[in-house]
């Protein structure tokens, strides 16, 4: 009894089109992967290097017409910038938003600021900080 071959003999007809397509896909995938890795690295570098001011909301105390917010700001010496804080009511409507400026030579600023609200605020949220 003879066995039935399902593939042609090796090297007899050259490389199959499937092997060529696989190699092309591998090369394209490697190039796209390298580009994606480079793009992520570029964005990460610019985020870390150009972000001269950052902050953290430590706590807040909500009142009837204002919210007292405790912020800890870290920045480069001599850098100036501002942080945006907002407050929302119980139903989710924004009742206050303000920018608080930070400047000077200190690299760490621990400050309590007062955010005026149009209605009783139930939250305080640090939206972000930006250098001038």
Give a structural overview.
Pfam families: DUF4307 (PF14155). The chain crosses the membrane at residues 25-45. Keywords: Membrane, Transmembrane, Transmembrane helix. This is DUF4307 domain-containing protein. The protein is an alpha+beta fold. It has two domains: 15-50; 53-131, Immunoglobulin-like. It is built from one helix and six strands. The chain has one helix spanning 17-50; strands at 53-62, 66-75, 81-88, 94-102, 108-116, 125-131. Strands 1-2-5 form a three-stranded antiparallel sheet, with no helix packed on it. The model has no long low-confidence stretch (mean pLDDT 86).
Query: Mean of residue pLDDT?
Result: 86
Q: For the record, what CATH class of the largest domain applies?
A: Mainly Beta
Order of strands, main sheet, comes to 1-2-5
CATH level-3 fold name of the largest domain: Immunoglobulin-like
Query: Number of helical segments?
Result: 1
- Order of secondary-structure elements: HEEEEEE
Tell me the CATH architecture of the largest domain.
Answer: Sandwich
Helicity level:
25-40%
